[in-house]
Amino acid sequence: MSGCKPGIMPVVSTMQAVSWAGPRAVEVIERELTDPPPGWVRLRVVGAGICGSDLHSYRRGGPAVNTPGHEVGGVVEAVGEGVELETGANVSVEPVAVCFRCYECLTGQTWHCQNRVFLGGDGAGGMAEAMLAPATSVNPLPDPVAPEDGSLAEPVAVAVHGVSEAGIRLGTRAVILGAGTVGLVNLLVARRAGATEVYITARHPFQAEMAQALGATAVFPDGQTARRELKGLPVDAVIETVGG
Fold this sequence. Notes:
Layout: E1 11-20, E2 26-34, E3 40-48, H1 52-60, E4 72-79, E5 90-93, E6 96-97, H2 103-106, E7 117-118, E8 130-134, E9 138-140, H3 153-165, E10 173-177, H4 181-192, E11 197-201, H5 205-213, E12 218-220, H6 223-230, E13 237-240
């Protein structure tokens, strides 16, 4: 991925960005603001989500050299040579730069690219005023979707894939464990896929309120309560979103 690392591109200005500063510590620092290389774009970040993986990095202390943030929505403000996107476009970001040359890429498994750079992990992410991304990883948002809502595109994609893999469709009865962002999005997608009953566990009252608003059949405080209250009710699919 030569020519894609921000550190070797000519500096035109600076921007503010989040940086890890040790376990349970972050700081806002000045980073170089660079022009996008060929095939890349620079976007003005409007929204950046906090993923569970970001929380893990926060607790243990992430690498100081990188800016976190892989759930990103923004506005294209500069494009590199060969890019057809227009400046001013509202976009979401698929947070990976791939080579399109390795076996995985050539067989359609780009997420497993042998040379991938994960934006917000290996490469600089979106918890900053601006972000660089390959044009192939930037997806224009349809009207009237606002750029800040583009930061939810990545979690929604995770849910769409999971619901599809779980075979959730019209008439399905499902249980979702966890009502964080990913759990709630799975609830919404499962309902849109046709699930007749969707039960969900929610640790916090605000999560329970949101789950009810999004169409949960019932909300339980934990898995044990769900098992007791459902009394052996058979379900077609269980989606686990809490990592335990």
